[in-house]
Specification:
Layout (H helix, E strand, L loop, with lengths): L1 H17 L6 H11 L2 H4 L2 H10 L1 H11 L1 H4 L17 H32 L2 H21 L15 H16 L5 H11 L4 H27 L5 H28 L6 H21 L1
Helix pairs in contact: 1-2, 1-12, 2-8, 4-11, 5-11, 5-12, 7-9, 7-11, 8-10, 8-13, 9-10, 10-11
Membrane topology: Multi-pass membrane protein
Pfam family, one: BacA
Organism: Intestinibaculum porci
Length: 281
Amino acid sequence: MLLKLFVSFLFGVVEGITEWLPVSSTGHMILFNQFISLEKLTSKNFYSMFEVVIQLGAIMAVVVIFWHQIWPFRNNKKKQGAERYVNMDIIRLWIKILIACVPAAIVGVLFDELFEKLFYNPVCVAIALIVFGVAFIVVENNHKNMRPRINSLEEITPKTALMIGIFQLIAAIFPGTSRSGSTIVGSLMIGVSRTVAAEFTFFLAIPVMFGASLLKIAKFGLAFTSTEAAILAVGCIVAFVTSMLIIKFLMSYIKKHDFKVFGWYRIILGILVLLYFYVIK
């Protein structure tokens, strides 16, 4: 029991760190499970659910940190009528977030099991890590002296949101791509500033992760054993605490730095994974 909880703790740390940095949380979870296997300590069905639902802990960190930017209902005495109780700017933001979710939601519901069967393996993860690592470096180099067109969340149009959602779709198909990585790279390519790209990516994760988690729980069922419930709780709590620290770090980091360091990290990690599974193992 203690070993299972300790392994869950480690998975929570990995999830909390990699969910928000553009290095692929799913990819790291797949790779981590190859060396410290929670799946072998529990069951294949439980682990398949765990590696998705643990993201709820990470997403709650976004809700807590950005609460005032995402919760539209409040009593603003300076406004009149409906606007006194509802912030329409936030409502419009949520509409754009939901538009961006449409591509991944449709494809995920229809083909989730197929993609998991085809691509959820170390080699595919390694290739995705390398390809998007190169993409980060190329995009950052090309945009080094360019001024972004979109410098606030309000400037994101529904069309722009849909384009970002299409980039997110790549991560929904290929583990190792990184949901945050694909949306940030895509956002930079269409002229969104780094800070706005990161914030929109965080907010976009809320319905995506809640939806994916509910889908996995529905497939698994609610027949948790006490041990399984404890393992899931530990993972989620640790992911929440770690995510709180990482999100604050990333928002501070991108004010002065670009994303190229994450690109190099992805390339190096991808090469090491390929060497391990094709040469060493």
